[in-house]
Amino acid sequence: QVRLFERGGGSVQAGGSLRLSCVGSGYTFSGCFSWFRQAPGKERERVGTMLGTSKTTIADSLKGRFTISKDIPKNTLYLQMNDLKPEDSGIYYCVARDDTCMSRFELYADRGQGTQVTVSA
C-alpha cells in the first residue's frame, strides 16, 4: 500500500528557510511527485514537480527560492524553501501519481496528510 508522509513544517520568520520532506512508503518514485500548497481562503496551487528521477519544475513565482530534490535510496522527496515570505504560509501537500505530472491536485491518487508552514513577518 502506498503512503506518503510529509515532515518538516513549522513556524519561521520571514527570510528564513525550511526543508519539507516527503517519505514514500511502498512507492518506487518512477512517476510524478508534486508539492501543492493551500493558504487559508485561497485555492490550492501547485508548487513544483519531479517526474522520474530528475525532471523538476517549480512554479514561476517561486523560482529562485524553492527547489525540489529527491533522495532515491531514502525514498524521500524534498522541498527546500528559502527566503520565506508570509504569503508562503499554508498547508503543503506531497502527492504522487504513476503517470505524467498534472496541475490539478485531484488527479493525484496518492496524497499525504499535509504539513503546516507558517511564516511570520
Describe this structure in words.
- 0% of the residues lie in helices and 52% in strands.
- By secondary structure, it is an all-beta fold.
- Strands 2, 4, 5, 6, 9, 10 and 11 form a 7-stranded mixed β-sheet that branches. Strands 1-3-8-7 form a 4-stranded antiparallel β-sheet, with no helix packed on it.
- Strand 5 and strand 6 form a beta hairpin.
- The mean pLDDT is 93.
Radius of gyration: 13 Å
- DSSP strand content: over 45%
What is the structural class? mainly beta
Largest sheet: 7 strands, mixed
Helicity level: under 10%
Work out the number of β strands.
11
Helical region count?
0
Mean pLDDT: 93
- State the separation between the terminal residues, measured CA to CA: 41 Å
Shape: globular
**Low-confidence blocks of residues:** none
Order of helices and strands: EEEEEEEEEEE
